Amino acid sequence: MKQIEDKHGTDTVEEISSHISENDLLPMLMNGVSDFIFFMEVAGRRRFTYRYMNESAINDLLGKEADWKGKYIEDLLDDAASSSLIDAYEEVVVTKRPVTYEDEMMVNGQVYRGHSVLTPTMDEAGRVTHILAVTRNLTEMLEKEKALESMNAVYKSLMANTTDAVIILGTDGKVFDVNEAFTDLYGFSKDDMPGCTYPFVPEEFTDEARGLVQRALEGAGASGYVTKRKSRDGQLLDVSISVSRIQNEEGETIGVSSIIRNVTEQKREERKRESSRSRYRSLFKHNPQAILTLTFRGTITNANPASLEMLDKEGNELLHTSIMQLVSKEQERAVRKEIAGSFFDHGGRFRTMVDVGGNEKILYVSLVPIIIQGRKEGIYAILDDITEKERAYEGMRQSQESFRLIANYSNDLISVFTPNGNLVYASPSQREFFGEDPLNWSVEKVMEKVESVDLRRLQDRFMKSHQSREGFTITIKLTSFNGEPVWFECRATPVIDDDHAVSHMVMVARDISEQKSYEEKLERFAYYDYLTGLPNRLLFEENVWKAVEKGHRTGQAFAILYLDGDGFKAINDQYGHDMGDEFLREVGKRLRSCIRGGDSVARIGGDEFSILIEELKDRRLIRDVSTRMLRELREPYYVKGVEIRTSFSIGVACFPEDGETHDALFRAADTALYEGKRNGKNQVLLYEDQ
Predict the structure, then answer these.
(1) Dist CA 333 CA 457 (whole Å)
(2) Residue 275: enclosing H or E segment and its boundaries?
(3) What pLDDT sits at residue 397?
(4) Contact at 8 Å (CB) between 95 and 127?
(5) Hey, how many other C-beta atoms are within 10 angstroms of the C-beta on 366?
(6) CA-CA distance, 581 to 513, in Å (whole number)?
(7) pLDDT value at residue 6
(8) What confidence tens digit (pLDDT) does each residue in 487-501 have?
């Protein structure tokens, strides 16, 4: 069009058309617009060829050098795109009416969203011979609308669904907005705070609060600032506050946001944890077992009196030294590997010799991770002095008579096997343990005394030891004459004959049930809730990880139920925390009775619980299961003679529909839960119901 103006000045359209032929005018007009224009010939049923494209369509879709004239739609587009486009063109032919539709396609690697109008051209017989298609680019407009909707949705979601209290202030200090959690926490709504009044701030903290706002306006802000605030009823609350300024796209400060978290319960829990730590310190100090605490680099951070006595040390003599000083140079690499492995596994073990006052002691060291609030903070090193046992063992190897003398009076279970696994010697202690002499047993009966998993491990280690002619240590569980399972640490040593072949395998099994029990207690502290005895968040998340891995491997569906009490605070306020704790125990018992054997329930914290429903064959059943569980939780509780009535809200997420990862499933269940609470509590809400 610019060319026309330059050539003809201010001529009217009629004057311009008199200077330009109709054959030239139409292409000039069509090539001057950004819309895609196509003129298609109807070549047959569902057959359409390109007769004309304007420059916008050619340049943006095909490229200037593309060969398109006379081509069919399916020649230029893939099967999926061409099929839907041909459907629209065929509809124009059949109905003889214009057809409008919107679609999207990939153009030069980017999504193109268009609005198209197909207009038929008919001959004198009324048959559609050609179709004019005009496609308008809606991509930018739709993206802007989507971005705006997304921003509004994020803000609304943040304000509506976050469990933390949020308050928005203008630059003048006036309250612009608060969320429902803020009103729940303090009891004040936006309408209760006209102007720059903050009734939730105690009088003695007024200057502090205004100072936080001013710092935020200046760009300093605050994060995790712990202070005191008060609710409408005058109750003082411990809160953690984060304050930051809000800026627009031009970088101008337009307000201040403050996120407030009620940490009153956390403070109480910290006091309880301190009490628990005191009990642990007492157990550590007075334990007859020698124990050291280590960093993951092997630095000794604490030593109980039993370990000082074992190593002939005093006071803080061991502190800040390395456990590597207790091992030989040859062992350092292997010990460092065991210590590093304790961070990722459940622990490790190694044997070492140390010089204690000029005497050599042989120690067996067990490494157990120290887990606090789900985090691995260090390592327990449990020392066992096996000097006497090792010396007895060495003497046994040197002399058969000495071996039998020691074996006959040892409490350990001592056995000698042939390379084929036949038992040829069993110490008298085995008759006491098994109730009969194992030498009279068949190979099959010997194997029956070992659990199947341990038996496979033991056979594998025997075979490798026979090949390498090196000893090994393994922990297995044996069944005594009264059917009781007992943990043993078994040290196996091959006996090498003059031909450098393994003639026998000697095994000494030491009862470590007491040590195992102690290790299991330490592990239980890490994985189970002290109040209800249920698995805690850490163990529950590990179970969900395993369920996700199994689901991806087998396609097995499962569901996560996230439960939150609707009135637990009121129970604590009315009856006291001791009654509240007893009530939570009753809830835990009731939840256990509601689930199947293969499912699991955990206490996440406070009155929050989670349930993992595995092997979900029909996800439609989860609604019925959750509803029955909700009815069961509504039934009255009788705690110390007092009837308590309350309710719970349940949020449900299903794998894989609502999330295919651990984090996505927890977010979905949490979102469903708090959407349900926001909509009135005391209900089950599936993530798909939102």
Answers:
(1) 25
(2) helix 264-286
(3) 59
(4) no
(5) 23
(6) 33
(7) 42
(8) 888 898 888 887 788
Positive or negative CA dihedral for 38, 100, 130, 3? Answer: negative
- Interval 48-67: pLDDT, tens: 999 998 888 888 777 777 88
pLDDT at 509: 84
> Could you identify the residue written with the tokens 């592990």?
523
CA atoms within 13 A on the CB side of 608: 13
Question: Residue 9 pLDDT more than 50?
Answer: no
Query: How many angstroms separate the CA atoms of 95 and 77, rounded?
Result: 24
CB-CB contact of 299 with 321 (8 Å)? yes
pLDDT confidence bin for 73, thresholds 50/70/90: confident
Could you tell me the two tokens for 623?
A: 């609604």
What residue spans of 287-426 are helical by DSSP H? Answer: 305-311, 332-344, 387-398, 400-409
pLDDT at 1: 35
CA distance 404 to 422: 18
Answer whether residue 108 shows pLDDT above 70: no
Please state, as a whole number, how many other Cβ atoms lie within 10 Å of the Cβ of residue 176. 16
Q: How many helices (H) and strands (E) does the chain have?
A: 23, 27
State yes or no: pLDDT of 151 exceeds 60: yes
- Cβ atoms 609, 537 nearer than 8 A: no
Residue of 91, 94, 133, 93 whose CA lies nearest to 114: 133
Give the containing element (helix H, strand E) for 79. helix 79-95
Q: Which residues pair with 379 in a beta bridge?
A: 294, 369
The pLDDT assigned to 667 comes to 94
Task: Respond yes or no on whether the N-terminal peptide bond of residue 199 is cis (omega within 30° of 0).
Answer: no
170 SS3 class = strand
What per-residue confidence (pLDDT) applies to 281?
A: 67
Cβ atoms of residues 449 and 478 within 8 Å: yes
If pLDDT is split at 50, 70 and 90, which confidence band does 24 have? Answer: low
Enumerate the H helices of 422-495 as residue ranges.
428-434, 443-448, 452-468
Q: Please give the torsion angle defined by the CA atoms of residues 140, 141, 143 and 148, in that order, rounded to the nearest 10 degrees.
A: 140
Question: What distance in Å separates the CA atoms of residue 192 and residue 588, rounded to the nearest whole number?
Answer: 39
DSSP 107-168: ETTEEEEEEEEEEEEE-TTS-EEEEEEEEEE-HHHHHHHHHHHHHHHHHHHHHHH-SSEEEE
Q: What is the rounded (10 degree) CA torsion for 376, 378, 381, 382?
A: -50
CB 571 within 8 A of CB 579: yes
CB atoms within 10 A of CB 222: 16
Least reliable range by pLDDT among 164-168, 419-423, 437-441, 519-523: 519-523
CA distances for 489 relative to 154, 296, 417, 591, angstroms: 57, 25, 17, 38
Calculate mean pLDDT across residues 458-482.
84
Measure the CA–CA gap between 565 and 622, rounded to whole angstroms: 20
Dist. CA 43–CA 60, nearest whole Å: 26
Q: Which residues contact 233 (CB under 8 A, 6 or more apart)?
A: 187
**Opening angle at CA 146, ends 141 and 147, nearest 5:** 100
* Mean pLDDT on 330-340: 80
Q: In the Cβ-directed half-sphere of 134, how many Cα atoms lie within 13 Å?
A: 9
- The DSSP H or E segment spanning 494 is strand 485-496
- For 295-330, what is each residue's pLDDT tens digit? 878 788 888 888 888 888 887 888 888 878 877 787
Is 291:379 a contact under the CB 8 Å cutoff?
no
